[in-house]
Design brief:
This protein is mainly alpha-helical and 124 residues long. 56% of the residues lie in helices and 11% in strands. The protein has a domain at 22-96: Orthogonal Bundle (Arc Repressor Mutant, subunit A). It has helices at residues 22-34, 38-47, 54-61, 65-77, 98-123; strands at residues 52-53, 81-86, 89-94. The protein has a 3-stranded antiparallel beta sheet with strand order 1-3-2. Strand 2 (81-86) and strand 3 (89-94) form a beta hairpin. The longest helix is centred in the C-terminal third of the chain and has 26 residues, at 98-123. The two termini are 34 Å apart.
């Protein structure tokens, strides 16, 4: 019986990435945790079009100001967004653009998975 290389994807046979250390896994889990709240993703989507203040986000998203401020604080603490003062306003902007790559990757994977499941159901 051939020995299976655990560093290869069993389905494709291609090599996969090197295993992550505990600290790296914790950091990745933290980032995914921050991205697991839909209101934060809505805020990021709006900020993807350009910097905005809290009031603009409240109007565009139809959320309460307290909730927007809370979610901005979480995104800011995670380093996903940053802010700067513009006169008496605080403007928020994306500081970690890779979050959009992650979202596209997840959405693409979900679409592929859904299509495979649908094809399986049709074949039955």
């Amino acid at each position: 019986m051939p020995k299976i290389d655990s560093r290869k994807n069993r389905r494709t046979g291609r090599s996969t990435h090197s295993p992550l250390g505990t600290q790296q896994l914790t950091a990745v889990a933290g980032l995914f945790g921050v991205l697991s709240e839909s209101s934060r993703l809505q805020i990021l989507q709006q900020l993807g079009d350009g910097p905005l203040g809290v009031g603009e986000l409240v109007r565009k998203l139809r959320m309460k100001q307290a909730n927007v401020s809370k979610q901005l604080g979480i995104l800011l603490s995670a380093g996903i967004i940053a802010r700067e003062r513009d006169g008496n306003r605080v403007i928020y902007f994306i500081d970690m653009p890779l979050v959009f790559d992650l979202c596209r990757l997840v959405c693409s994977g979900m679409a592929t998975h859904a299509a495979r499941r649908a094809a399986t159901l049709v074949a039955v």
